C-alpha cells in the first residue's frame, strides 16, 4: 500500500462544490489526526470542527475573505494548548496508566524528565513546540483525506486572535494555529499543475 497515488491526486482546493462530506468520513479525518505521532505523546492540540454557515461567514471575514471557508463542507481548526507545563505531562500519564494498565507511578522518573525538558523552555517556545505537533496531525489528516478522495485546503492565512475570539478559544487556553477546509472538488474545474523541488535538489544521500 502506498499513499503516493493519493498524494499525486491531492491539491489545495480553492473552489469547493456544494457536496457535504459525510460525518463518518469527517470522523476518519479526526481519527487520522488523533493517531498522529507527537513529541512524548503529549498531544498538546485539539481539532474543532465547524460547519455552521453563520460561524463560517464570520470566520471568513478574519481570513482575507478566502472563499474556501464559506464554501467548504467542514472547516477543521487545529488548536494548540497555550498553557503547557507539568499538568500537560500529568494529563498524559493519567491516560497512560489507564490505557495501558501499567502500574501507577512506575513511569514517574520519565514523567519528571519530560517536565524538566518543558520547564527549560519559555512559554513562547513551548507554544511553538505545541504548534509543530499540531502540524504533524495536520499532515496525517491531509494524507487520510487524499486516500479517501476528500479534498482539502490547509490554511494559515487567517487572524489567529480573531478566530480565538469568535470560537471562544482564548478562555479555554487554546489557540487556532492552522485550519483546513474539507469538501469535494467540482470535476469541471481544471486541476492545477504541481510545482515541487526536483528530487535531485530535495533528497541527498549522504555518503
Ligand atoms: C501551513 C500551510 C498554510 C497554507 N495557507 C494557505 C492559505 O491561507 N490559503 C490558501 O489558499 N492556501 C494555503 N496553503 C496551500 C498551499 O499554498 C499549497 O499547499 C501549496 O501551494 C502546494 O500546493 P498543493 O497543496 O496544491 O499541492 C497552505 C498550505 C500550508 C501547508
Automatic annotation (TrEMBL):
<comment type="similarity">
    <text>Belongs to the nitroreductase family.</text>
</comment>
<feature type="domain" description="Nitroreductase">
    <location>
        <begin position="8"/>
        <end position="184"/>
    </location>
</feature>
<dbReference type="InterPro" id="IPR029479">
    <property type="entry name" value="Nitroreductase"/>
</dbReference>
<protein>
    <submittedName>
        <fullName>Putative NAD(P)H nitroreductase</fullName>
        <ecNumber>1.-.-.-</ecNumber>
    </submittedName>
</protein>
<keyword id="KW-0285">Flavoprotein</keyword>
<keyword id="KW-0288">FMN</keyword>
<dbReference type="GO" id="GO:0016491">
    <property type="term" value="F:oxidoreductase activity"/>
</dbReference>
<keyword id="KW-0560">Oxidoreductase</keyword>
<dbReference type="InterPro" id="IPR000415">
    <property type="entry name" value="Nitroreductase-like"/>
</dbReference>
<dbReference type="Pfam" id="PF00881">
    <property type="entry name" value="Nitroreductase"/>
</dbReference>
Amino acid at each position: 500500500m502506498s499513499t503516493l497515488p493519493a498524494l499525486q491526486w491531492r491539491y489545495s482546493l480553492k473552489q469547493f462544490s456544494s457536496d457535504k462530506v459525510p460525518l463518518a468520513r469527517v470522523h476518519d479525518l479526526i481519527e487520522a489526526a488523533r493517531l498522529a505521532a507527537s513529541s512524548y505523546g503529549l498531544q498538546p492540540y485539539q481539532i474543532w470542527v465547524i460547519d455552521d454557515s453563520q460561524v463560517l461567514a464570520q470566520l471568513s471575514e478574519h481570513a482575507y475573505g478566502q472563499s474556501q471557508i464559506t464554501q467548504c463542507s467542514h472547516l477543521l481548526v487545529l488548536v494548540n494548548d497555550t498553557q503547557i507545563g507539568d499538568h500537560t505531562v500529568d494529563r498524559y500519564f493519567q491516560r497512560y496508566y489507564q490505557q495501558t494498565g501499567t502500574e501507577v507511578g512506575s513511569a514517574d522518573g520519565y514523567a519528571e524528565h519530560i517536565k524538566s525538558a518543558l520547564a527549560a523552555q519559555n512559554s513562547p517556545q513551548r507554544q511553538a513546540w505545541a504548534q509543530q505537533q499540531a502540524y504533524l496531525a495536520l499532515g496525517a489528516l491531509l494524507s487520510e483525506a487524499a486516500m479517501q478522495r476528500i479534498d482539502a485546503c490547509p490554511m494559515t492565512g487567517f487572524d489567529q486572535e480573531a478566530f480565538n475570539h469568535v470560537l471562544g478559544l482564548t478562555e479555554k487556553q487554546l489557540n487556532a494555529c492552522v485550519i483546513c477546509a474539507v469538501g469535494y472538488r467540482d470535476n469541471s474545474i481544471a486541476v492545477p499543475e504541481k510545482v515541487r523541488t526536483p528530487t535531485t535538489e530535495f533528497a541527498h544521500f549522504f555518503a
